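hey so u asked for the seq, here:
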Amino acid sequence: MTGEDGGGGAVVAPPTTKGRSTRQRLLSVATSLFAEKGYSRVRVSDIAAAAGLSPAAFYRYFNDRHELMLTLLQQLTAEAFDFVRVPWRSDDPMYSVLRSTQLYFEFYADHRALLGLLVELSQTDPEVARIWADSRRLFYSRIAQSLRREVRAGRLRVDVDVDVAAELLGSMTEFYAFQRLVLSDGVVKDVPLDESAHALAEIWTSGLVRRVGDTGKRGAGR
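ran it, structure tokens below
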């Protein structure tokens, strides 16, 4: 047996349906406990008890609390990427941006506790920092791919560095969601999230949609 974050040997994935169900139950109750108490105040014994298991049984599924937490965050970021996927509509870029932003805010609201934990622990835990960095990199890359395709088709401005634009637009969306849904400190105006999504979509499209008379060349191939 290991300590709370002791790091033991590799734990083999459960081969049975019952084992997989039990492992998922541990992940689910840990999510609730982390949201209620914070990561640092939740012990393996707390997670095991909430799942109806003994502490010894916990270690059949995870080496320690840290491994469980990393598993949760990896699942979270993968789920987020799939959840907000919206096909780009060349005939209506506003719809594509608006819908993906609405879905992003919806996902962030439903998982605010774990997303807050992701940001918090990334400051001190290199493995969490890597998970967060990888998810942002993938997020920005997908935005850039859509923008680059539309620039080459002549529908978006060619005088913008696509990669930088993707990073700026993605960061704006992510940090707004973090301020609004995790910090909740009253700094940003408390308006309906759908109103915020519409405003962000307007800013996105008004800054990137090609205007009559645009002739610049910079940025299209980047």
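The CA atoms of residues 143 and 166 lie 5 Å apart. Residues 216-222 have pLDDT under 50 and may be disordered.
lmk if thats what u needed
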